[in-house]
Amino acid sequence: MEQLKGNKYGTHRVIEPKGVLTQAAWKIDNDMTKRYSNEIICDVISLNIDSASFTQIEEACGGDEQKIADMIMGIVAERGKQQNPVTGSGGMFIGKVAYIGEDLKDRDLKVGDKIASLVSLSLTPLKIEKILAVHKDIDRVDIVGQAVLFESGIYAKLPEDMSEPLALAALDVAGAPAQARKLPKEGDSVLILGANGKSGVLCGYEAMKKVGPNGNVVGVVRNPKQVPALMELGVYNKVIVASATEPVAVLEAALEANGGKEYDISICCVNVENCEMSAILPVRDDGIVYFFSMATSFTKAALGAEGIGKDVTMIIGNGYTKDHAEITLNVLRENEKLRKLFDEKYC
Ligand SMILES: NC(=O)c1ccc[n+]([C@@H]2O[C@H](COP(=O)([O-])OP(=O)(O)OC[C@H]3O[C@@H](n4cnc5c(N)ncnc54)[C@H](OP(=O)(O)O)[C@@H]3O)[C@@H](O)[C@H]2O)c1
Q1: What is the rounded CA–CA span in Å between residue 180 and residue 266?
Q2: How high is the pLDDT of residue 1?
Q3: Which of 121, 137, 199, 226 is the pocket-test mutation for ligand 1 (most atoms within 8 Å of CB)?
Q4: Which residues 6+ apart lie within 8 Å of 74 measured at CB?
Q5: Closest Cα to atom 25, ligand 1: which residue?
Q6: From the CB of 191, is ligand 1 less than 6 Å away?
Q7: Which of 119, 165, 225, 239 is the Cys-Cys partner for 347 at CB 3.0 to 4.6 Å?
């Protein structure tokens, strides 16, 4: 069959509106019978739905698994991709390579390899034939279906030294720990909101390594029962209890845990809205606020920082940063406690 050449970024699959990239498109073409010379097609095994998106879908469906499955089928049928219309976010997939276009034959990849997509489902053409299982506790959905990776789409071959679910769970949030390694300096203080979550603990681990014994890494959780296990995990110097939707309470507890000083950096890893000010308020002028959470509002962050006269650098949590997959998988290789936690909680 003659192969068509598509656009490197996938714009050939945009149906509406024309002129935008696939992430911003309302609807994209998920016809898997079309063969482009610069695409990879995978038989999908599981979707890891982004936490903010899954939380929204689960709430909208009252927690009913069949309704969750129907809603996901509906979104994909309508849009050609798993992009939550409310949160705008997606997630990632793992699957087996089924087709590699002629132009991509020089890649270190062959049909049958298992890979994890490292680009968002919110821009990935996806066709679902059926949903096999909804795993509510880990935001995962097993399916029969296919997905497309464009020429620019990044992916990771699944490692052989860990199980698929383990690698998938970690790679889902790969951008966060890699940034938590990059942003702090030795001796910095770092505040992590959503400290008990998947990205939170990985960030805590990387930040602790980077700031060293003279630094201070403080986690924020809303549930006091999580504190002992988190301290035992050893990825925070201190863990404080406050709701990230209540900035004044977070500020007070956070300052107390940092000798009354404002923080050099905060990292927002929560999965709910209205946490912008809890991340901004405790940070010093010229400090850094890293918004990994997909529930972050640009407007609330920008106007909120302005409103309190804070000159902080705010970073949008780009899911990709150099070597992010390797850095994240290495956390699990380096730290047995974290690996055990991930195995028990997300696999
Ligand atoms: N930027 C990117 O590329 C990218 C990629 C993947 C994911 N994300 C986003 O990153 C965020 C975190 O993902 P994740 O997988 O780490 O999520 P997760 O494992 O579900 O963790 C989220 C944490 O936030 C906590 N939380 C919720 N509401 C809170 C509140 N009011 N106060 C304090 N803590 C609160 C939760 O606490 P409980 O344990 O009490 O529920 C949970 O521990 C999500 O928004 C996700 O969508 C971003």
Answers
A1: 10
A2: 61
A3: 199
A4: none
A5: 194
A6: no
A7: 165
How much is the pTM?
0.90
What does the pLDDT read at residue 347? 86
Query: What is the pLDDT, as a whole number, of residue 239?
Result: 98
pLDDT tens-place string over residues 224-243:
999 999 999 999 999 999 99
CB distance 223 to ligand 1 below 6 Å = yes
Cβ of 172 closer than 6 Å to ligand 1, yes or no, is: yes
Measure Cα distances from 153 to 38, 148, 150, 288 in Å. 10, 9, 5, 29
Among 72, 176, 178, which Cα is nearest to 127's? 72
CA pair distance 347, 345, nearest whole angstrom = 6
Name the nearest CA neighbour of 283 among 200, 202, 190, 220: 190
| Dist CA 329 CA 167 (whole Å) | 7
Answer for the pair 82, 45: CB distance below 8 angstroms, yes or no.
no
* Ligand 1 atom 37, closest CA: 194
Instruction: Dump pLDDT digits (tens) for 303-327.
Output: 999 999 999 999 999 888 989 999 9
**Which pair of structure tokens corresponds to residue 119?**
């680009």
pLDDT band, residue 3 (cuts 50/70/90): confident
Q: Where are the domains of the chain?
A: 11-158, 175-346
The residue to mutate among 173, 202, 338, having the most atoms of ligand 1 within 8 angstroms of its beta carbon, is 173
Q: Can you name the CATH fold of 175-346?
A: Rossmann fold (3.40.50)
Nearest CA to ligand 1 atom 9: 293
pLDDT score at 319: 86
pLDDT at position 168 is 86
- Among 251, 271, 278, say which to mutate for ligand 1: greatest number of ligand atoms within 8 Å of CB: 271
Question: pLDDT, tens digit, for every residue of 112-121?
Answer: 999 999 999 9
Atom of ligand 1 nearest to the CA of 243: 32
3-state secondary structure of 331: helix
Identity of residue 295:
A
Q: Tens digits of per-residue pLDDT, 151-195? A: 999 999 999 999 988 998 899 899 999 999 999 999 999 999 999
